[in-house]
Specification:
The chain has eleven helices and eight strands. It is globular and about 75 Å long. The chain has one domain: Alpha-Beta Barrel (TIM Barrel). It is α/β, with parallel strands linked by helices. Strand 3, helix 4 and strand 4 form a beta-alpha-beta unit. Helix 1 packs parallel to helix 3 and helix 4 packs across helix 5. An eight-stranded parallel β-barrel has the order 1-2-3-4-5-6-7-8, surrounded by six helices. It binds erythose-4-phosphate (E4P). Erythose-4-phosphate binds next to helix 7. This is Probable transaldolase. It catalyses: D-sedoheptulose 7-phosphate + D-glyceraldehyde 3-phosphate = D-erythrose 4-phosphate + beta-D-fructose 6-phosphate. Belongs to the transaldolase family. Type 3B subfamily.
Amino acid sequence: MKFFLDTGNVEEIKRIVSLGLVDGVTTNPSLIAKEGRVFKEVIQEICSVVSGPVSAEVISLKADEMVQEALEIVEWAPNVVIKLPLTEDGLKACHELSKKGIKTNVTLIFSAAQGLMAAKAGATYISPFVGRLDDIAVDGMKLISDLRAILDIHGLKAEIIAASIRNVGHVEAAALAGAHIATIPGSLVPTLWKHPLTDAGIERFLKDWESVPQTPGHK
Ligand code: E4P
């Protein structure tokens, strides 16, 4: 499974890129707003530190305006992917852009039917929102596994990005449910490698090491 970072924070991205863990980045208007910076500058800076796909979302609601916006955004960097909302206009824009060979990420997917529509319209990526479904007591992971089955049965090319990830359990379950990608908030990433038993283990090893006779010239 590939790992994307769900953030607009360049410093956060650089830190995790240095661990070799970043296959791509997703942003959305709320994440960009948090940075208090110009959208184009943020996207260009992210694209310069990440070689994989970087999703930048349009804010227009009409298909022709979405396409216009997308045509501008794709000029910003070669690895930009256009993020579109799952609406009738979003599907139309997705279809238009896919005919032009422009990569798209259709977002705000909450049902298998929506995911199927996006994949058929030519989306490169489809983003079901696991956490926001869990918030309303709907099983977000079932949506991931249903979508994976649908794509496989019908030979549809879109890749599933498990989005709205809130905890380690979501990442593990999304991997098991067949998501191709999980997009993870930067602040959550360290919780994926941290474990209290690892820390306790290191502490015990170092304590025990104190009783080992010193090797001359070695720590
Ligand atoms: C997906 O691409 C979205 O940016 C994101 O995962 C939304 O997550 P949230 O529900 O935590 O806002």
